[in-house]
C-alpha cells in the first residue's frame, strides 16, 4: 500500500489482492466472532479529550465532566492505580463517592461508561509476574501476560468491577506481547484468554482495542469489539499527516487508509472494523531545550493539568464522521466533542447535534448494509479518490471521498464490482451533502446495470449516494441543487399542455450544469422555461435536457489559484474573492462566536471565519526557503502543522490569512521557492470556503 500522505501511482499496483478470497477469509473470521454486537455501537473516548486532566473530586471537575456526558460521552473511571497497588478490591471495597456521583449521573443520561485497562503495567499484587523490558537500556518493568496468575487476577477483577459498577466495558491499552522470559505466543494466548473470559462473562460489553492490540491480526480480535482506531496512537505527532489544514480531515484520511488495510489485508469483518470521528486533542507542549542552539529541537512535555480544551474542528467534523461511518460504521468511535470548553459547549448548535445524531442513528437502521461494505475505486492516498459501497441486492449506498484540495473525478460501474447483484434500472441520488439531489445519466436520467458513472468531486469533500430501483410515477428533476430550505425551496416541474416550466433550480455561482427532467409520459414539448427564463432544450423521448448557466463569479470550495512560472522562475497567480465569500465568513463567525485567543489563531482548524490561503506540500518541510508577495507587498507565510504546536514531522504546508483582502478585486500573488522543491508543491488553495448556490439564471 502507498502511505496516504504520499503521491499514489496513477494505477494501483497489482499485489495479488482478490476480492473473492478476501470475502471468503473475512467470512471465516466472522464465523468465529464471540458474541458480536447485535447493533452498531457508539463510543466516546475520554482519553482523546484529555479527560485525565479533569479532577472529578472537585465541583468544577464534576461540572466539566457532566458537560462531556451531556454531549453524548463515555466516562473513564480513575481507580486503576489503587487496583494495581492492591489498595482497592473491586469485589468488596466501597466505591468512592466522587465516582458514584458520576456513575449515577451517567445512568440518568443513559450513557454507558468505559474503564481503561493496562494489562502490561506492573501490577504489584504478585512480583512473580513482573519482568524487565526486552531492551537492555529499558529501565521499566512490566507484567507478563504469559503468567497464568496474572491472567486469573485480571479476569477476576475485571468481571467483578464490571458487575459492581455496571460499566459498559473496557479499553485495553499497552498490552505488550514481546516481553522476555516467555514466548510471544504464550503472551498472546494470555491476552486472548483474558478478553474472551470477560466477554463470555458479560457478552454485551464493549471491548475497545488500543495499543498494541491492532498488531496481532484478526484471530486476536474475535472477542473484542474492534482493534485500535487509526492503527496506532491517535495523537497528531504519532503519524505523518495527509497535508490538510483541518485535523479532523487529516484524522479521517488516516482512518480510511487504516480501515482499508484492516478490511483488505487483515480480513477484518465489518463488525470489528473501528470507526474514528473527529480527532485527539493535543496533550504535549514545547519547552525550550537546555543550552538551546539553532540546531536543538524543542523538548516536549506532557501536560497533566487543563490545557487547550478548545479544539472543535467546525468545518472538518462532517467529513470525519462520514469517513468513520463509511469504513467502520459498526463501531462509531467518537473523540473530540465540544464539551470541555464552556464557550464551544454553549454554542454547539442544535442543528449540528441533530446532524450527528441522525447519522449515528442511520448506522443502526442500516446495519445490514454496513455489514456488506466493500472498498471501491482506489486505496486512500494523495492523488486518489476512494470509496466504499454498501449494497444488498439491487439497492444500497455509495460513500465517495476526495481528500485532495484539487477537484478529481470518481468513475465506477454499476455491477458486481460495487456489490450490485440484482436489478436492471436504477435511480441515483445524493443524501449528502445535497440531500435528495437526483444524479442523472446523460441524455437518459435513469441508470442501467453495467453503466459507467462519472462524477466530479470537489476538493476535501465527502459525498454519499443512494442507489435504488427506478420506480416512479411523477416527473424527476436531475442534477439540480435540492436544498429544500427557506432560501432555496425544492425544485419542481409543471407541464401545461406542451410547455414545461421548472422552478427553484439552483446551482453554484458561476457554474454551468445540464439539468434533466424525466417525464412520466412521453409528451412532445414545444417550449420550456427555467426559473422564469425561456431556454433552448433537447428532448429524447421522455427525457428533456437543458444547459443552465448560473449568475455570479465562480469561487469553489478549495478554490485554486492557478500558478504559472515566469522567466524569472517565480510562480505567479491571480485571483479575486467575491464579496459573498466574506458575507459567508461573517455569518459563520456569528453562528460560531468563540472568543479566540492568540494560541487559537495559530491552529489552522480553529477560527473558521478566516479566509486562509494554503500552500499544500507533499512530504515537505518547514525549512523550505519560501517567500511570497501579494500585490507587490510582502505576504507573511506561516508553517502549518497537524499539531497545535511546532512539530516538524507534522508539517503540512504554509498558509496566509487573507481575510482582509479587498473583495471583487484582482490580486496578484507571487511565490519564490527553489526549483528543486516545486514538485512537492501541490498548489495554492483557499480554505474555509463552503459551496454557495443561487437560482439566478443567465444566458
Short descriptors:
alpha+beta, Immunoglobulin-like, beta-galactosidase, domain 3, seven-stranded antiparallel beta sheet, 13 helices, 39 strands
- State the secondary-structure class: alpha+beta
Shape: globular
Question: Mean of the pLDDT scores?
Answer: 90
Approximately what portion of the residues adopt beta-strand conformation?
Answer: 25-35%
Structure write-up:
With 699 residues, the chain is α+β, with helices and mostly antiparallel strands. Among the domains are: 372-471, Golgi alpha-mannosidase II (Immunoglobulin-like); 472-550, beta-galactosidase, domain 3, CATH 2.60.390.10; 560-691, no CATH class. It has 13 helices and 39 strands. The strands form 11 sheets. Strands 10, 11, 12, 14, 15, 16 and 18 form a 7-stranded antiparallel β-sheet that branches. Strands 19, 23, 26, 27 and 39 form a 5-stranded antiparallel β-sheet that branches. A hairpin with a 2-residue loop joins β24 (527-530) and β25 (533-534). α5 runs parallel beside α6 and α8 runs parallel beside α10 (350-365). The chain is globular. The model is unreliable at 72-78 (pLDDT under 50).
Amino acid at each position: 500500500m502507498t502511505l496516504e500522505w504520499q503521491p499514489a501511482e496513477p494505477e494501483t499496483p497489482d499485489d495479488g489482492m482478490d476480492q473473492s478470497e478476501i470475502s471468503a477469509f473475512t467470512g471465516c473470521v466472522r464465523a468465529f466472532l464471540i458474541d458480536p454486537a447485535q447493533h452498531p455501537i457508539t463510543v466516546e473516548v475520554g482519553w482523546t479529550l484529555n479527560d485525565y486532566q479533569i479532577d472529578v473530586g472537585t465541583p468544577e471537575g464534576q461540572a466539566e465532566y457532566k458537560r462531556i456526558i451531556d454531549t453524548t460521552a463515555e466516562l473513564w473511571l480513575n481507580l486503576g492505580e489503587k487496583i494495581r497497588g492492591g489498595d482497592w478490591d473491586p469485589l468488596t471495597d466501597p466505591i468512592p463517592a466522587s465516582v458514584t456521583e458520576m456513575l449515577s449521573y451517567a445512568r440518568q443520561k443513559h450513557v454507558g461508561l468505559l474503564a481503561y485497562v493496562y494489562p502490561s503495567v506492573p501490577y504489584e499484587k504478585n512480583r512473580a509476574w513482573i519482568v524487565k523490558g526486552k531492551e537492555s537500556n529499558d529501565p521499566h518493568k512490566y507484567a507478563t501476560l504469559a503468567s497464568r496468575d496474572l491472567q486469573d487476577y485480571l479476569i477476576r477483577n475485571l468481571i467483578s468491577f464490571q458487575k459492581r459498577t455496571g460499566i459498559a466495558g473496557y479499553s485495553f491499552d499497552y498490552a505488550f506481547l514481546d516481553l522476555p522470559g516467555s514466548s510471544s505466543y504464550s503472551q498472546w494466548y494470555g491476552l486472548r484468554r483474558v478478553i474472551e473470559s470477560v466477554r463470555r462473562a458479560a457478552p454485551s460489553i464493549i471491548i475497545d482495542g488500543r495499543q498494541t492490540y491492532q498488531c496481532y491480526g484478526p484471530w486476536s480480535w474475535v472477542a473484542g469489539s474492534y482493534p485500535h482506531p487509526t492503527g496506532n496512537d491517535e495523537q497528531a505527532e504519532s503519524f505523518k499527516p495527509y497535508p490538510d489544514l483541518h485535523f479532523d480531515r487529516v484524522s479521517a484520511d488516516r482512518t480510511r487508509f487504516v480501515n482499508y488495510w484492516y478490511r483488505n489485508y487483515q480480513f477484518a469483518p465489518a463488525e470489528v472494523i473501528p470507526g474514528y470521528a473527529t480527532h485527539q486533542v493535543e496533550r504535549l507542549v514545547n519547552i525550550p531545550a537546555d543550552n538551546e542552539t539553532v540546531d536543538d529541537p524543542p523538548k516536549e512535555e506532557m501536560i497533566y493539568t487543563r490545557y487547550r480544551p478548545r479544539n472543535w474542528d467546525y468545518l472538518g467534523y462532517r467529513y470525519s464522521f462520514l469517513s468513520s461511518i463509511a469504513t467502520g460504521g459498526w463501531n462509531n468511535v467518537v473523540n473530540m466533542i465540544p464539551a470541555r470548553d464552556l464557550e464551544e459547549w454553549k454554542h454547539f448548535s442544535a442543528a449540528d447535534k441533530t446532524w450527528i445524531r441522525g447519522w449515528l442513528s442511520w448506522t443502526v437502521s442500516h446495519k445490514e448494509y454496513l455489514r456488506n461494505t466493500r472498498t471501491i475505486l482506489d486505496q486512500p492516498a494523495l492523488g486518489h479518490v476512494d470509496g466504499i459501497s454498501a449494497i444488498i441486492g439491487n439497492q444500497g449506498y455509495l460513500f465517495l471521498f476526495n481528500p485532495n484540495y484539487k477537484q478529481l473525478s470518481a468513475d465506477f460501474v454499476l455491477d458486481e464490482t460495487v456489490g450490485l447483484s440484482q436489478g436492471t434500472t436504477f435511480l441515483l441520488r445524493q443524501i449528502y451533502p445535497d440531500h435528495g439531489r437526483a444524479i442523472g445519466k446523460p441524455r437518459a436520467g435513469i441508470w442501467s446495470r453495467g453503466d459507467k458513472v462519472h462524477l466530479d468531486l470537489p476538493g476535501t469533500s465527502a459525498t454519499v449516494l443512494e442507489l435504488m430501483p427506478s420506480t416512479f410515477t411523477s416527473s424527476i428533476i436531475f442534477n439540480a441543487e435540492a436544498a429544500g430550505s427557506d432560501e432555496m425551496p425544492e425544485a419542481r416541474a409543471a407541464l401545461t399542455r406542451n410547455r414545461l416550466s421548472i422552478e427553484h433550480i439552483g446551482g453554484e455561482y458561476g457554474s454551468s450544469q445540464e439539468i434533466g427532467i424525466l417525464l412520466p409520459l412521453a409528451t412532445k414539448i414545444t417550449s420550456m422555461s427555467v426559473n422564469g427564463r425561456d431556454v433552448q432544450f433537447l428532448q429524447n423521448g421522455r427525457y428533456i435536457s437543458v444547459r443552465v448557466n448560473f449568475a455570479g463569479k465562480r469561487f469553489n470550495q478549495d478554490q485554486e489559484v492557478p500558478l504559472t512560472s515566469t522567466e524569472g522562475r517565480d510562480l505567479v497567480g491571480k485571483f479575486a474573492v467575491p464579496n459573498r465569500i466574506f458575507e459567508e465568513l461573517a455569518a459563520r463567525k456569528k453562528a460560531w462566536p468563540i472568543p479566540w485567543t492568540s494560541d487559537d489563531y495559530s491552529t489552522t482548524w480553529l477560527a473558521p471565519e478566516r479566509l486562509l490561503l494554503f500552500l499544500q506540500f507533499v512530504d515537505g518541510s518547514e525549512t523550505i526557503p519560501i517567500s511570497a508577495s501579494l500585490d507587490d507587498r510582502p505576504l507573511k507565510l506561516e508553517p502549518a502543522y497537524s499539531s497545535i504546536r511546532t512539530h516538524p514531522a507534522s508539517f503540512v504546508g504554509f498558509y496566509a490569512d487573507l481575510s482582509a483582502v479587498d473583495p471583487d478585486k484582482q490580486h496578484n500573488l507571487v511565490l519564490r521557492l527553489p526549483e528543486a522543491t516545486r514538485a512537492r508543491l501541490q498548489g495554492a488553495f483557499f480554505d474555509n470556503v463552503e459551496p454557495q448556490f443561487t437560482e439566478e439564471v443567465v444566458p
